[in-house]
Design brief:
The chain is α+β, with helices and mostly antiparallel strands and 112 residues long. 20% of the residues lie in helices and 37% in strands. The chain has a single domain, classed as Alpha-Beta Plaits, CATH 3.30.70.120. The protein has helices spanning 13-22, 70-81, and strands at 2-8, 29-35, 42-46, 49-53, 56-65, 89-95. Helix 1 (13-22) packs antiparallel against helix 2 (70-81). It holds the Pfam family P-II.
Length: 112
């Protein structure tokens, strides 16, 4: 099993969710986060005053998939989240050693 963590633009959340659902990814956790990468934030003008925004609002999606689903899930996230502009986000993949559904005590892939 693999955990996929994707940091994406907030406007691309529905597209990513729909793409993952279409390939059979059943669950995900979504968090509103802030951060910056190479862009180091940006400046905005509000009521004539310019100010710097160093932490950009993003969405963090976490999902655990079977090893066989990993490549297609990454591809779907990439296609749905990509705008071609700086700040599209990143995808990370981590190994998952154990998972358990608390209600039924199903473990590992059966828990997904």
């Amino acid at each position: 099993m693999k955990m996929i963590i994707a940091i994406i633009r907030p406007s691309r959340l529905e597209a990513v969710k729909d793409s993952l659902s279409a390939i059979g990814v059943e669950g995900m956790t979504v968090s509103e986060v802030q951060g910056y990468g190479r862009q180091k934030g940006h400046t905005e003008i509000y009521r004539g005053a310019e100010y710097a925004i160093s932490f950009v609002p993003k969405i963090k999606i976490e999902t655990v998939v079977r090893e066989a689903q990993m490549e297609s899930a990454i591809e779907e996230i990439k296609k749905a989240a990509q705008t071609g502009k700086m700040g599209d986000g990143k995808i990370f993949v981590l190994p998952v050693e154990f998972a358990m559904r608390i209600r039924t005590e199903d473990s590992n892939e059966a828990a997904l």
